[in-house]
Amino acid sequence: MIDYIFLALVSFTELLISYIVFSHIFDSKHSVFSCLFFGTLLFESAVAVNVFLSNNIVVNGIYFAVINVIFALAFFRISPVKAIFYSITLDIFSTALEFVTIVLLSAIFKVNINDYNSNTSLLIIEGTVSKALYFILCLAIIRFIGSDKEKVRFPLSLYIYPFSVIAALLVFWKICLENSLSSASQIVLSAVGILLFGATIILFITYQRNVQKVNRILSAQSEISRLETEKTYYEILERQDEQLLSYAHDAKNHLAIIKNLNKDETIDSYIDEMSESLKSYNSISRSGNKALDVIINKYTTECDLKNISFNYDVRATNLKCIDDYDLVSILGNLLDNAVEASEKSLQKFISFKTNCVNSYDVIIISNSCDNAPNARGEKLITTKSNASIHNIGIKNVKKAAAKYDGDMSWDYDRDKKTFTATVMIRNRIREQIAES
Fold first, then answer.
1. pLDDT digits (tens, 9 = 90+) for 337-366
2. Alpha-carbon gap, residue 273 to 91, rounded angstroms
3. Buried b (16+ CB within 10 A) or exposed e, 255-288
4. How confident is the model at residue 417 (pLDDT cuts 50, 70, 90)?
5. CB burial of residue 71 (10 Å; 0-12, 13-18, 19+)
6. Could you tell me whether strands 349-357 and 360-368 are parallel, antiparallel, or unpaired per DSSP bridges?
7. Dihedral over alpha carbons 351, 357, 360, 363 (to 10 degrees)
8. 362 near 355, Cβ under 8 Å?
9. CA separation (Å) from 426 to 52, 189, 318, 430?
10. How far apart are CA 330 and CA 328, in angstroms?
């Protein structure tokens, strides 16, 4: 009975190690609780297979790889090829270290290599040591391999704990041999070692989750600070724009009077040129939404400086239904991405237009993009170094759209090399007018 309980604990330990490996490299599809709850059911089925087939090493190895593949595909954003590769790799590590541990401990303690089949305490010691070594090796490897997301680096000081567990288990077994302790005492000591090892794994998982949580909080704070700074910047531009508009209006009147008083054709020609310049200033966006106008004017200037063709059409709707802060979040993030992609492409163009579909305002931003975006399904994956900060921009667009019962979608045309982002925003003002 104790042997079966130990095998169940070993399977749960393998689940925890697999979770640490996969969650360290790939994004999770579900909550930690879901991963561990359903993962436990999956991994514990290995105990039944082990018992039913009388500990067939080959079958155990194949089954371990299979359940790792299923676990990876079910709970993480990972391709089938990578799931198979990592699962087979984990299987090889686990099996090899289990064999090496049995051989070494049998030689060190001068016991038969097959004694663990009949000696429960030896089974527990050897099994726990092998899984501790397997855990350490997995930690060492994921520290250096590539990752599809921002990695959480475990400090070297944490590695003391699994090594301490191994040392404690070896000391426990030496005490058992030298003092001829009863089977019950041996099992108690072995169980203490298992608990220490379990606590060590939980420590690593807790550390990993806390670091990820702190990173998300810092990223969110950084994005909020950026948006607040940008909104303040737009407010300054808006005040300057109003002052310049007033100046342009007065200047045109002054120039008209000067032209009427003047008789010199050369001066008349010069005044006409100045008047045309003032007309071009008045031709900038006047949608009726000051925040939208300032954003458009800002990106018009930026695109001019970067030789990017920027066309806009906001006649269908001026997005007045969106709060200024949310408008900055949506358009700022999408247009920043559009400018960055267009600047790197050959055609260099951005198209921004709005539309109305039933009770929804639609934002459509298209831009030249020579390289297809890095994506996993519908989720865009940034190629920038600090993934946690840059990915949060798109998340904020979706979050802002969700406040208005809307959403964001995207499409990439490989033939035209054009990326298009579409945001649907529910216009409650228009909806209320229609109902009344």
1. 999 999 999 999 999 999 998 889 999 999
2. 78
3. beeeeeeeeeeeeeeebeeeeeebeeeeeebebe
4. very high
5. buried
6. antiparallel
7. 0
8. yes
9. 59, 64, 13, 9
10. 6
Q: What residues have CB less than 8 Å from 268, skipping those under 6 apart?
A: 259, 262
CB-based contact 17:208 (threshold 8 Å): no
Residue carrying the six token digits 């095998």: 7
| Number of residues in the chain | 436
The per-residue pLDDT for range 80-131, each reduced to its tens digit, is: 999 999 999 999 998 888 888 888 877 877 777 776 666 667 777 788 888 8
User: What is the 3-state secondary structure of the chain?
Assistant: CHHHHHHHHHHHHHHHHHHHHHHHHCCECCCHHHHHHHHHHHHHHHHHHHHHCCCCHHHHHHHHHHHHHHHHHHHECCCHHHHHHHHHHHHHHHHHHHHHHHHHHHHHCCCCCCHHHCCHHHHHHHHHHHHHHHHHHHHHHHCCCCCCCCCCCCCHHHHHHHHHHHHHHHHHHHHHHHHCCCHHHHHHHHHHHHHHHHHHHHHHHHHHHHHHHHHHHHHHHHHHHHHHHHHHHHHHHHHHHHHHHHHHHHHHHHHHHHHHHCCCHHHHHHHHHHHHHHHHHHCCCCCCCHHHHHHHHHHHHHHHHCCCEEEEECCCCCCCCCCHHHHHHHHHHHHHHHHHHHHCCCCCEEEEEEEEECCEEEEEEEEECCCCCCEECCEECCCCCCHHHHHHHHHHHHHHHHCCCCEEEEEEECCCCEEEEEEEEECHHHHHHHHC
Sorted by sequence, the CB contacts under 8 Å of residue 321 that are 6+ apart come out as 361, 404, 425, 426, 427, 428, 429, 430
391 forms bridges with which residues in the sheet?
Answer: none
Q: Check if the beta carbon of residue 4 is closer than 8 Å to that of residue 47.
A: yes
> 398: which 2 tokens?
């979706």
Residue 120 neighbours by CB under 8 Å, 6+ apart? 2, 3, 6, 183, 186, 187, 190
Provide the token pair at 275.
Answer: 């008047």
